[in-house]
Amino acid sequence: MLVPPVRHPGYTPRRAAGLTGYERVLARAGFAQVAGIDEAGRGACAGPLVVAAVMLDPRRRSSIGDIADSKSLTAAAREEAYQQVMALAMSWHVVVIPPGDIDGTGLHVCNIAGMRRALAGLSPQPQYVLTDGFPVRGLGVPALAMWKGDEVAACVAAASVVAKVTRDRLMRDLHKRYPVYGFARHKGYSTPSHMRALTTYGPCPEHRRSFANVGCVGDTTSPGTDDPVDLETGDPAGLRAGDGVGPETGDAAGPGVGDLVGPGVGDSMDPETGDPMGLRVGDVVGLGADDALGPGAGEPMSLGNGHPPRVEAGDPMSLEN
Predict the structure, then answer these.
(1) Alpha carbons within 13 A on the beta-carbon side of 207
(2) Coil, helix or strand for 252?
(3) pLDDT tens track for 95-112
(4) b/e per residue, 183-202, with b = 16+ CB within 10 A?
(5) H or E element: which one contains 49?
(6) Distance, CA of 99 to CA of 101 (rounded, Å)
């Protein structure tokens, strides 16, 4: 007599099971405490990468509202969802990874390490983990990678909300330090306005220089000049009160306050030309008492070879400076 095979109980959630369907199925399989992990800021070219792990209370998670896909929610709706997640979470942990670490070790390596650190920060530890997008090795507990997990699993959606709201707050704080980039609007993503500001002012310390659209820009200088720009105000750096500014370029015009130019302090000046008065043809100007003079020319000579030294643009004696 043939014995029919024992049918293994199915644990596949139905399509209409709702946002907590996966957690309920896992609970029937003996995994009541389920954590979700997600990150925010992976595609941004400025600001930190934020990774969050959230474990919802199994007894209360069914009361969670519609928090799927935090990126599609408005800022006000995300803040409200954040407060709801905080009220329903059994445990949560956030890891903030600065741009310097991303440039040093790579985005994906930082993402994986951040997920492990976020999970390790949960107390108590979960029995099962759901991740968004790709599998993560070395978590120490059973895990399942889910495509668009923040749209189908409550714990992943909760982690997405926590990561997104935390990062948005950090970017608003960065906007106060570097207002010329508009971080409060685009949150460090490569929008047209952000790219224009990046081209104009160059990258700041919060930009990810390993990204192609940041690394090709260069240093923080105003286009067309070599003068650094104050990233907090957008004005040319190094100017002091009373310094002259060129009307066309906005660059510092002429010598700065306190710079020594031409004759000594107290010498008489021609009011029309600004030249020293009382000089005669052949008088030596601007040389020290022991400087050597070219024969009949009044030019300084190099003491090594008897020829006038070459003056480069930018040297104190250059007329191009």
Answers:
(1) 26
(2) strand
(3) 999 999 999 999 999 999
(4) beebbbeeeeebeebbeebb
(5) strand 49-56
(6) 5
228: Cβ–Cβ under 8 A, 6 or more apart, which residues? 220, 221, 222, 236, 237, 238
Superfamily of domain 15-174: Ribonuclease H-like superfamily/Ribonuclease H (3.30.420.10)
Instruction: In whole angstroms, give the CA distance from residue 248 to residue 265.
Output: 31
Q: State the amino acid at position 260 in one-letter form.
A: L
- Residue 140, C-beta contacts closer than 8 angstroms, at least 6 positions apart: 119
CA distance 106 to 113: 11
Other beta carbons within 10 Å of 209: 15
Domain residue extents for the chain:
15-174
Give the SS3 label for residue 228: strand
102: left (phi over 0), alpha (psi -120 to 50) or beta: alpha
Cα(24)–Cα(33) distance, integer angstroms: 10
Cβ contact 97:48 at 8 Å? yes
The pLDDT tens digits of the residues spanning 165-214 come to 999 999 999 999 999 999 999 999 999 999 999 999 999 999 999 999 99
**If we measure between CA atoms, which residue out of 47, 53, 114 comes closest to residue 89?**
53
SS3 70: helix
Sheet containing strand 49-56, strands side by side: 89-97, 49-56, 34-40, 128-132, 143-146
Tokens describing residue 287:
């040389």
What are the distances in angstroms from CA 180 to CA 13, 63, 105, 273?
49, 43, 28, 41
Size (the chain), residues: 321
pTM of the model: 0.67
